[in-house]
């Protein structure tokens, strides 16, 4: 294998794969370096296994809302089958099925830990032993992702807590699970394990509410749903100490208000940190362990020569798989000499929290829009107010809200909460990114009877 390539990509997660594939399809020679599995965090320890574990509980909850179908819900989830499906979806943590995609595009996979060692130069400590030095004629792309953050709470690390990898790879469901962190990862896994059979689940969030980055009503609705399912939620109280009794004994967590919570396992889901501590950033004048700063062409700022790029979670712009893939396409186009810029990673990010109710949002929240001094008007309707929701069963609840820039009369943010609304989000994303005038959007007629009729109700609430 040659040591010189047009492009060298560090990290074979979704962002790294995408930039490598697009560059290769554009006629460039590409080396893709990966120390673990091709497919990355999302495929094996994040989105894919977590949503697979969430799905059985979602299906049963949906059936229980439907008169007639609810009467058939007499058994329990087959946990062994659910875990086996998770194993199938992750290929039992083997990437044999992913590698042919690279081979078909003539992308050279280099397995090992990589680091920058100077101008367009990468050194790889090969998994099989030895080392290789790779040089890039055009570009080096950083796509190293993130790992779970671990707060410096006394005794926490020593208690052998779960992180997202441990949780999504669990071999059994603990009887008692404590979740530290009420963001998307913590909320999703808390409900998933409760529905898979955990007898006690407790969520501890140090901030004032769940899903703090979304509209306040979203976190409150998720909290009410959790408590109705027997999930205990504590907010506004910090974790101060953790201890585990013996090698495999229970865990005791102490909170700032002196309460103690006992569990069999403790899952830490308080955020992510960029995997940039040991990739040689210091050799190009950047600070290791920090998000890699980029401009809107995904070129790393502070490095001369326009040869270094960073895409996906490691640049800190928008920590979501789909945004990393979007950035990867832009970076590849820039490398290929095309005119491309990132227009969506700041104000137009779509995101879904796969709890029940789901929280689906794009763009700015009301608070963010007002902080920017925009002339904002907010309209909202109940998710269950349209006939399409009623056909899904009884008790369909939630909120659909639009944040409108009233001066331009365009949508700048939207939030939909309710069961199974994720597929509704893309229509809002199109409206936000396309800056579709509301007067024009009014002519996009929703089919009847679908939940998308909320669009009509929202525009009517605006006055159209």
Summarize this, please?
This protein has helices at residues 14-25, 40-44, 47-64, 79-89, 99-104, 164-168, 184-195, 216-228, 321-335, 366-371, 387-390, 425-434, 438-441, 454-462, and strands at residues 4-10, 30-34, 108-118, 121-126, 131-142, 146-148, 176-180, 200-205, 231-235, 239-244, 251-255, 260-263, 265-268, 272-274, 308-310, 350-353, 358-363, 376-382, 399-405, 410-418. With 464 residues, it is α/β, with parallel strands linked by helices.
Main features:
464 residues; alpha/beta; FAD/NAD(P)-binding domain; 3 domains; five-stranded mixed barrel; five-stranded antiparallel β-sheet; 14 helices; globular
Task: Give your account of this protein's structure.
By secondary structure, the protein is an alpha/beta fold. The protein folds into 3 domains: 4-39 and 95-147 and 273-335, FAD/NAD(P)-binding domain (3-Layer(bba) Sandwich); 157-270, FAD/NAD(P)-binding domain, CATH 3.50.50.60; 357-462, Enolase-like, domain 1 (2-Layer Sandwich), CATH 3.30.390.30. 28% of the residues lie in helices and 25% in strands. It has 14 helices and 20 strands. The protein has a 5-stranded mixed β-barrel.
Q: Helicity, in percent?
A: 25-40%
Compute the separation of the termini in Å.
63 Å
Give the CATH superfamily of the largest domain.
Answer: FAD/NAD(P)-binding domain
Unreliable runs: none
The value of Rg in angstroms is 23 Å
Secondary structure tally, helices:
14
Strand order of the largest sheet: 1-2-3-4-5
């Amino acid at each position: 294998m040659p040591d010189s390539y047009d492009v060298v990509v560090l990290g074979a997660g979704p962002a790294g794969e995408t930039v490598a594939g697009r560059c290769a399809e554009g006629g460039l020679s590409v080396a893709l370096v990966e120390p673990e599995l091709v497919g990355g965090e999302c495929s094996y320890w994040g989105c894919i296994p977590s949503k697979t574990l969430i799905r059985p509980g979602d299906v049963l909850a949906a059936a229980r809302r439907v008169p007639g179908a609810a009467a058939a819900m007499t058994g329990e989830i087959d946990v062994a089958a659910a875990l086996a499906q998770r194993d199938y979806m992750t290929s039992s943590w083997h990437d044999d099925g992913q590698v042919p995609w690279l081979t078909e595009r003539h992308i050279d996979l280099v397995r090992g830990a990589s680091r920058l060692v100077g101008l367009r130069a990468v050194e790889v400590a090969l998994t099989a032993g030895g080392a290789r030095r790779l040089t890039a004629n055009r570009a080096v792309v950083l796509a190293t992702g993130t790992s779970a953050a671990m707060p410096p709470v006394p005794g926490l690390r020593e208690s052998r807590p779960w992180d997202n990898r441990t949780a999504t790879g669990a071999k059994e469901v603990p009887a008692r699970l404590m979740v530290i962190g009420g963001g998307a990862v913590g909320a999703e896994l808390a409900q998933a394990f409760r529905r898979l059979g955990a007898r006690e689940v407790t969520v501890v969030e140090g901030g004032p509410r769940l899903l703090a980055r979304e509209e306040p009503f979203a976190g409150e609705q998720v909290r009410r749903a959790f408590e109705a399912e027997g999930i205990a939620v504590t907010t506004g109280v910090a974790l101060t100490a953790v201890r585990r009794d013996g090698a495999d004994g229970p865990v005791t967590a102490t909170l700032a208000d002196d309460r103690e919570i006992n569990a069999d396992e403790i899952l830490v889901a308080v955020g992510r940190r960029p995997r940039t501590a040991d990739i040689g950033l210091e050799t190009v004048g950047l600070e290791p362990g920090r998000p890699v700063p980029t401009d809107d062409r995904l070129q790393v700022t502070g490095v001369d020569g326009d040869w270094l790029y960073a895409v996906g979670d490691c640049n800190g712009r928008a920590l979501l798989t789909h945004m990393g893939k979007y950035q990867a396409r832009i970076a590849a186009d820039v490398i290929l000499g095309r005119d491309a810029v990132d227009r969506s990673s700041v104000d137009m990010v779509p995101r879904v929290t796969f709890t029940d109710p789901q929280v689906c949002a794009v763009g700015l929240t009301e608070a963010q829009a007002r902080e920017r001094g925009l002339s904002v008007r907010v309209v909202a309707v109940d998710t269950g107010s349209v006939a399409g929701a009623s056909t899904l069963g009884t008790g369909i609840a939630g909120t659909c809200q639009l944040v409108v820039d009233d001066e331009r009369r365009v949508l700048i943010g939207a939030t939909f909460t309710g069961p199974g609304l994720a597929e509704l989000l893309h229509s809002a994303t199109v409206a936000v990114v396309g800056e579709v005038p509301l007067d024009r959007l009014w002519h996009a007629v929703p089919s009847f009877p679908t939940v998308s009729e909320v669009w009509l109700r929202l525009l009517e609430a605006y006055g159209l």
